[in-house]
Amino acid sequence: MQYKTVRFGIVDVPTEQLIIFPQGLPGFGELREFFWVPVPENSCFAWLQSADLPEIAFLVTDPFLFRPQYEIHLSPAEQELIKARQPEEVLVYVIVRIPANGKTQDITANFVAPVVVNTTSRLGCQVVLEGTNYQVREPLFKDIYTNPGCEGAAKCLF
Does the pTM exceed 0.70? Predict the structure, then answer.
């Protein structure tokens, strides 16, 4: 199927590649269908593009590239919502914010509310972590040179 997007023009996406968010995303509850658009110049990032609204796309990344010790735990209800039976079925992403100044050191990501997607069922949800030390606007690149295990994230620099 073809989807019109503001950022990427017309994008062909097979129906079986759509990701369904049964409850939408917080603040965007009416938007249920999304698809991935890779960032060709930087494979550490991808766009989560709304199939419902052409102007809505979220830049996302794998949080474990930047915080190897990052942990999330899905409640039984969240597991059921996305039909997750095995941890290996689930991919975790954080939504990235690039500031108007465009400076790499000011790029943040929402580590408090990761997006989880079941690769088998193609169902997703956004999970709000409680009691975490992470921030909604966690500096994304703060640890890549000082935290052992983050060296691989250096390849993600813009």
Answer: yes
